[in-house]
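Dear colleagues,

For the upcoming journal club I promised to circulate an example of a predicted protein-ligand complex. I picked one with calcium ion because it came up in last month's discussion. The inputs are reproduced below in full, followed by the predicted structure.
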Amino acid sequence: MKIIIDTDPGQDDAVAILMALASPEIELLGLTAVAGNVPLELTARNARIVCELAGRPDIAVFAGCDRPLMRTLVTAEHVHGRTGLDGPDLPDPTMPLQEAHAVDFLIETLRREPAGTVTLCPLGPLTNIAVALARAPDIAPRIARIVLMGGAYFEVGNITPTAEFNIYVDPEAADIVFRAGVPLTVLPLDATHKALVTTARNDAFRALGTPVGRTVAEMTDFFERFDLAKYGSDGAPLHDPTVIGWLLAPELFRGREINVEIETRSDLTRGMTVADWWGVTDRPANALFIGDLDADGFFSLLTERLGRL
Ligand code: BDR
Ligand code: CA
């Protein structure tokens, strides 16, 4: 399966990229960086650091939009640290950043590859994807599916009481993506807050005894400090790798085909994913909204894959 990962690394983005690179079922056509957890310069740098950690300096990494469509950029250094990848000590990347803009790469790739063969995997704010769809509407029917991490319904918000970070940062972009008519799978907080890195799961990463295993353990150690204090749970949610988990093993996940719309007008609930879970409107379904996952199954798959790197 051919995919493009659009990302704002972010420790959990990094783990998702590693999981994809470790999986023979997946052909990663490129990584597109977007501003989100930290500014674009750092996310484009971090994406390359992660490729080099995986021994894949051949992956094409593109920088995209450096700010949301209409809003001032909100970042999350309070979760991910100043660099976005705080925790492990990782060298600066030596592989090049591609010259082309991420949006041009997205459009050109979707026009070049046979229709219905490329899946987009956004792990950050949806700015790059929305700009590509707005600039080149002909790509929408060519996208096999968009599988994204973002939003929340029962678990509500992690950046405001009602909004999840990725959707909150660029709600107008999310609105464009959710209305694009492209098959959509959404991994919201309702799913990712069940993918908790407990001490035992983190020990399993470290026990791989490889640089990748050790680095992933150090990354999750870092952002755990924030999440444990905030949620008081058994471990930090490992959000973004659930996207790759769903691609590889959808049977580990449960959700519903429902209508999801994005709140863009209210300051109070900006970026809320208004999910018609109970089917109380006649608005047509536009997304498979995942509400639950088999956490043990997901973590054994993830750990087994990381062990291949
Ligand atoms: C999302 O926000 C980011 O901080 C994480 O990388 C993840 O994509 C979770 O709300
Ligand atoms: Ca992310």
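Two points we might discuss: Residues 8, 10, 13, 37, 123-124, 240 surround calcium ion (ligand 2) (CB under 6 Å). DSSP finds twelve helices and twelve strands in the chain.

See you all on Thursday,
B. R.
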